[in-house]
Design a protein that fits this description.
88% of the residues lie in helices and 0% in strands. By secondary structure, the chain is mainly α. Helix 1 packs antiparallel against helix 2 and helix 1 (3-25) runs antiparallel to helix 4.
Length: 135
């Protein structure tokens, strides 16, 4: 496994762990809220790293690989939806809101991020590592 993929997987794990910690502590606790708001920065930095280091290599390889091009198109559409939803969540909960809405929205956030992480690790990261083995 490449160093980049190991680093991205470590960040995935850290983000999921922190989000689980927020669930455990509760959104309305000072510590839970602080951790939740810090995860926004981690997610943004993680997405930036993927955009700068992972996707350019995959896009370059996709020029000559129709299968990879289709995968990237699907993932890119999905990523835009996930990114927008995550940013909307953090914007909505930058201040206190109703507990019912928060619980529902937080559950959706966890599912969305977990699903995205799984797809990246199962599909994109393997594609990236395959490309690096060909060099």
């Amino acid at each position: 496994m490449s160093a980049l993929i190991e680093e991205l997987k470590k960040e995935h794990s850290e983000i999921i762990t922190l989000l689980d910690k927020v669930k455990e502590l509760g959104f309305y606790s000072n510590e839970g809220r602080k951790i939740l708001l810090s995860t926004k920065d981690l997610i943004i930095l993680h997405l930036k790293k993927e955009n700068e280091k992972l996707y350019p290599i995959l896009r370059k390889a996709a020029w000559n690989d129709e299968r990879l091009k289709k995968i990237l198109n699907i993932i890119a559409r999905d990523m835009e939806n996930v990114k927008n939803s995550v940013l909307q969540f953090y914007e909505k909960y930058s201040d206190a809101s109703s507990a019912f809405e928060y619980a529902k929205d937080y559950g959706e956030l966890l599912w969305m991020i977990g699903n995205r992480v799984q797809r990246e690790e199962d599909i994109l990261f393997k594609e990236y590592d395959n490309l690096n083995q060909q060099d």
